[in-house]
Amino acid sequence: MAKKEMEVVKGLDLEKYMGRWYEIASIPSRNQPKNGVNTRANYSLNEDGTVKVVNETWSDGKRSSIEGVAYKADPSSQEAKFKVKFYLPPFLPIIPVVGNYWVLYIDGDYQYVLVGEPSRKNLWILCRNTQLNEEIYNELLQKAKDEGYDVTKLHRTPQSEPPPETDEGPKDTKGIWWIKSILGK
Known about the structure:
One of its GO terms (biological process) is lipid metabolic process. This is Temperature-induced lipocalin-1. Pfam families: Lipocalin_2. Residues 154-175 are annotated as: Disordered. Belongs to the calycin superfamily. Lipocalin family. The protein is mainly beta. It has one domain (14-161): Beta Barrel (Lipocalin). Helix content is 13%, strand content 38%. It has three helices and nine strands. It has helices spanning 14-17, 134-146, 176-182, and strands at 19-27, 37-45, 51-59, 62-72, 81-88, 95-106, 112-116, 123-127, 155-156. An eight-stranded antiparallel β-barrel has the order 1-2-3-4-5-6-7-8. The N and C termini lie far apart (33 Å). 28% of the residues are buried.
């Protein structure tokens, strides 16, 4: 049986979407640390209409980050289907890796969002705060199930309160997290 076409948000207000989002849960991509905590994304508009993406996480007590750029998959479409390009490895960024970033649901106040991609292998629940109301979380789980995701693979992301500052603590400048992720750790 063929999977149904995913419902994607139409008319996403990119300016309202910009800023910091905390990862509440994910079915992580293979390039994310498996033991990451305090994971978050920071989005800002570039002059050319693309979005600067900075993903941060703390793994084994060290902060690691990766920068990329997001752009509309089809600039003429109203659907919130984006491509995100990162360069790997983070310590010698030479290999472009492009992934899908589809906004499947966002609340009217732009406080929480469900993000996925067409293969249904990766899923993210993001929030403007480090914690999300359990009832809302369960509603987002149901939306993900309705879109064909196996939510049993979802991993809750530990978040500190208050969250660490960006420059707090030692940094992983060698990309150890990335090497571990390639090895499946």
